[in-house]
Amino acid sequence: MVRLLALDIDGTILRDDGSLSPLMAEVLRKIQEEKGVMVTLASGRLLDSMLPFARTLAVDVPVISSNGACLTHPKTGERLYYRPIPLPTAREVLAYLEDQMPCDLLVNHEKGFYINRQNSLLHMPNPSPWVRERLARCTVVDRLADEVNFEPLKISIIEESSAIPETVASLQKRFAKALSIFPSSEYSIDLNAYAVSKGRALEYLAAWLGIRREEIMAAGNAENDLDMIQFSGIGIAMGNAPERLKSAADLVAGDNNEDGLATLLRDYFGV
Question: Which domains does the chain possess?
Answer without folding.
Answer: 4-83+196-269 (3.40.50.1000), 87-193 (3.30.1240.10)
